[in-house]
Amino acid sequence: MIMSLQNVALELLRLSVWFLLLLLLLGGAEMLFAAHKSKGLRPAYWQDIGYFFGNGLLFKLAVVPLLSISALALSFLVPGSLQNWAISLPVSMRALLGLFVGDIAYYFVHRAMHQVPGLWRFHAVHHSAVVLDWLVSARAHPFEIVFTRWISFVVLYVLGLARPQESGMADLSTLLIFAAGIVWGFFVHANVRWRFGPLEWLIATPAFHHWHHANEAEGQRDHNYAAMFPLIDRVFSTLHLPYTLPKRYGIDEAMEADVSGQLMHPFKRH
Ligand SMILES: [Zn+2]
Ligand SMILES: [Zn+2]
């Protein structure tokens, strides 16, 4: 479970490749198709690079092993025949179903992060960004990463839609779910003015998630909780998708300017 130094170095290398790819694709798109005019490098940019690598390591170091252990411990909850049915599905079908079921779990845990005061204090770190771009996706308290990812994925592991790594071999549909979820998370934060017409009702887009970060009126953040499928918000009456983009992002409460203060934010008196 404990990563060797060599594995940590390998993971950092992998994260660096991801970072450069995302910077090239999404950073490039933001330069060409910006929704809000960039005023140069925003002050928290370097912090968010730190969150990118720190939380990326944490995901591999803590969330993945925790998932494997809890999936084994909780597998008795679901009949073996249901797990076997899920495992027998074609990879693409299992990945798609996994993304959808995982997003339903994420919807509820994300909604709880907003509505339970003790959980909001952790999630406030993510929402404290006043300028949105692709890298803001990485800006999250480590507890939020472990808690939300664990809940969203453990459901899939228990149902057989995703599987723990076995003898060094990762399951393809699990990798697809991880990769699609992470890449989509970065995409929906991107500062791009693209709109996708009727497709926006089918799949989350930057406009969908930008409205989740809006700070223009009371209760503005109480919608668009899903990560990928707006249909889930529609079913639970929390969808808000006008044809404009928000002008203001962030939160009203004070957030510490330094990372150590942000990490301690949930534990301070408010
Ligand atoms: Zn949120
Ligand atoms: Zn966000």
From TrEMBL:
Domain of life: Bacteria
Signal peptide, first to last residue: none
Keyword Transmembrane helix recorded: yes
Keyword Transmembrane helix: yes
Domain Fatty acid hydroxylase: 96-238
Keywords: Membrane, Transmembrane, Transmembrane helix
Bilayer-spanning residue ranges: 58-79, 91-109, 145-162, 174-192
Localization, UniProt: Membrane
First-listed, main subcellular location of the protein, grouped into a coarse class: membrane
Protein name per Swiss-Prot or TrEMBL: Sterol desaturase family protein
Biological source species: Iodobacter violaceini
Taxonomy of the source species: Bacteria, Pseudomonadati, Pseudomonadota, Betaproteobacteria, Neisseriales
